[in-house]
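Thought: the user asked what Formamidopyrimidine-DNA glycosylase looks like in 3D. I have the sequence; next I should run the structure tool and report back without guessing.
Action: structure_tool
Action Input:
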Amino acid sequence: MPELPEMETYRRLLTEQMARKVITDVEVNREKSINVQLAQFKSQLINMQITEIHRRAKHLIFQLSSGKNLLLHLMLGGWMYIGNEEDNPDRTKQVIISFGDKKLYFIGLRLGYLHLLTDTELEKELSDLGPEPLDQTLGFPEFRELIGSRRGMLKTTFVNQQFLSGIGNCYSDEICFEAGMLPMRKADEMDEDELKILYQSMKGVLTRAIQFGGYMEEPLFKGDAKTGGYNEQCRVYDREGEPCLRCSSPIVKEEISSRKSFYCENCQS
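Observation:
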């Protein structure tokens, strides 16, 4: 599932490609992916501009010139592609938004969605989300206070979107590895120095992942050299049995609260 770095990469690239462009057509092949009647969805998008694109947690928000918003959550298996009739993936597209000859394809939205919302509806939809991990207002004192109220394991704490928003399976494991801590460690049993290391690791891993374009393998458009660059940078995620980059011990895969987790049992404690 795309996490904060993947969605931030999408936001930046889509802003370059799509901002201020006028929507000329809309095709919906899976009506469960949208939240209003098809005719209403199309009529309220066609001839509108995408004025800005924002990210909140794992969501993208396409602001429309009408004042309404498209809220996107790709969920598991979802991705996007910018192309045209001759250049597009040979995959089922649940929603296609056209900007003249250029099209934005939404693919794999079996669980994901693209909802048309007012500002009030959008605020309500996102109201349960925790702070953004990279927000400048989240300094170490704020992080310490947040995590100090948690009793669970680091893995389950980091993927809890009400604790911090945007971190999922991949980056929770990468943060724990960077900090040298097992994902099973209890958040409320860490001392001040360990919390500082964890905080710095969280900021560092997410910043680096954004710089490399996240771990999504599919490019956003033909010639896209940015998306997915972090895939080769992952230290533990999806590297079961491979040697640890710090100590050469094999990376372990384990189910933690029904979530797959990867770690080095030798150099994480």
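Thought: the tool returned a structure. Summarizing for the user.
Final Answer: Structure for Formamidopyrimidine-DNA glycosylase predicted. Strands lie at 25-28, 50-56, 59-64, 69-73, 79-83, 93-99, 102-107, 113-117, 252-256, 259-263. Helices lie at 4-18, 38-45, 119-125, 140-148, 154-159, 169-179, 192-211.
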